[in-house]
Write a structure and sequence with these properties.
three-stranded parallel β-sheet, four-stranded antiparallel β-sheet, 2 domains, single chain, alpha/beta, 7 helices
């Protein structure tokens, strides 16, 4: 590339678009500590009470017609910043995905949920994402869909499990294709860990069940991938 373009070697990457990068013998870690503190400063949340989780236990969010709408533009800006922060903070990605569903008509309850995320970030500003060095080139995903504690709505257990499985497999296949561009060979089968033995059993057996008719497309997609050997679904306890 140096033969065709004028380039300058800036050595190892340390900071890029709000993302801090640290390279060590163990691997590469990325974090957004400065970005987090800047966000807390702009929202006047530096002195807030700390939260030990990004969302309250048994929190239910929906449309609250008995409440007053909050400033939509302010809400959208905040959630947009949190979406970017979730790139290096998978621990807030679920909660951020929930509050992002109310961008067009946010109520006070939704803003309280956003502030709860900020309080959690104040408690964990420097949390980092570590990519450890390894000789193995594998892609692993984990699915744990709890319909009883769904924050927005309740789907049937089968529907929740198969939707989660199908989405997880799609993400793994997409990542495998991305890595194939720089000629990175990934070990197969891709692993999708699941904490529900019944769901794994049904995924391996296409016998018709009345309670799974509404997820037939997902079931066939998963079964095709299992039969081709491109994926496998090992069981893992919820505690792990």
């Amino acid at each position: 590339m140096g033969d065709e373009f004028k380039i300058k070697d800036l050595e190892n990457l340390k900071y890029f678009l709000g993302i801090e990068v640290a390279i060590s013998k163990e691997g590469i870690s990325v974090s957004q500590r400065k970005y987090t503190f800047d966000l807390l400063t702009k929202t006047s949340m530096l002195g807030c009470r700390l939260a030990d989780a990004s969302i309250e236990f048994n929190c239910k969010l929906g449309n609250y017609n008995d409440q007053v709408l909050v400033d939509k533009e302010q809400y959208q800006r905040l959630v947009g910043k949190l979406i970017y922060l979730s790139l290096t903070r998978p621990d807030i990605s679920f909660t951020v995905s929930v509050v992002s569903q109310f961008m067009q008509a946010p109520y006070q309850k939704h803003m309280e949920a956003v502030n709860r995320i900020l309080r959690y970030l104040k408690n964990t500003p420097g949390k980092e994402l570590m990519f450890r060095k390894t000789n193995r080139k594998t892609i692993e995903a984990y699915t744990d869909s709890d319909w009883e504690r769904s924050v927005v709505d309740k789907k049937s257990s089968a529907e929740a499990k198969y939707k989660a499985m199908s989405l997880g497999i799609c993400e793994e296949i997409w990542l495998q294709k991305v890595l194939s561009d720089p000629h990175q060979e990934i070990e197969t089968p891709l692993k999708l860990f699941c904490d529900n033995k019944a769901a794994i059993s049904i995924a391996n057996n296409l016998v018709q069940h009345d309670r799974t008719k509404h997820v037939e497309i997902d079931r066939h997609f998963i079964k095709e991938r299992l039969d081709s050997g491109s994926i496998c679904i090992p069981y893992i306890p919820s505690s792990q």
